[in-house]
Translation initiation factor 1A
Amino acid sequence: MSEDSSGRKNLRMPDDDQVFGVVTEHLGGNHVRVRCADGETRLGRIPGRMKYRTWISEDDVVILEPWDWQDEKGNIEWRYEEQDAEQLRREGHID
């Protein structure tokens, strides 16, 4: 990630089929409830490649990719660090 003189980092942004979300509840195992930027609340699944490397907790900002066949569920693709989440909030990407 590169940083310009104002301290702004170039952060990973969602692809066309992905949305920003905020984790609202940890449901146990590898499942979380996510309030997405498109107004939906979805069940998020933490994939095995992230499960033990990236701890996800309530109020974390994530990128979620909704499933094609079941829009109310999706996979967590990325979790932002706290300072990156603050930058996204300042720039108006999430509320």
